[in-house]
Specification:
It is a single chain. The chain is mainly alpha-helical. It has a domain at 2-47. It is built from 3 helices and no strands. It has helices at residues 2-20, 26-47, 69-73. The longest helix is centred in the middle third of the chain and has 22 residues, at 26-47. It is elongated. It starts with a helix and ends in a 24-residue tail after the last helix.
């Protein structure tokens, strides 16, 4: 964030100096190009910074165990749970005339 603010401060200075420096010449073009390009550079550098939170790769296989052979042969004794949703209108329908 600090680097972004510094870069945008330099851009603001370039933009102001572009109009203040007289006579108009090649400096005007350099300052104008810098004022136009610096926002892109500031955003790229701000997004390319180091992450402050280290991340680790998690394996999707952690915690998955193969079922034991004895459990596979046992028949299912419980019935599966079924969830039923029913939609009802928030207010009853008004009679039509």
């Amino acid at each position: 964030m600090r680097q972004y603010a510094i870069t945008m401060g330099i851009r603001t200075a370039c933009f102001i100096l572009m109009f203040v420096i007289q006579p108009l010449g090649w400096w005007t073009w350099v300052l104008g190009i810098a004022a136009a390009v610096l926002p892109y550079i500031a955003v790229v550098f701000a997004n390319a910074g180091d992450d402050s939170v280290p991340t680790a790769v998690e394996s999707p296989r952690i915690g998955i165990e193969a079922p034991h052979a004895a459990e596979e042969q046992r028949p299912e004794t419980t019935s599966p749970q079924v969830i039923t949703l029913a939609e009802t209108p928030a207010r009853p329908a008004e009679p039509r005339s």
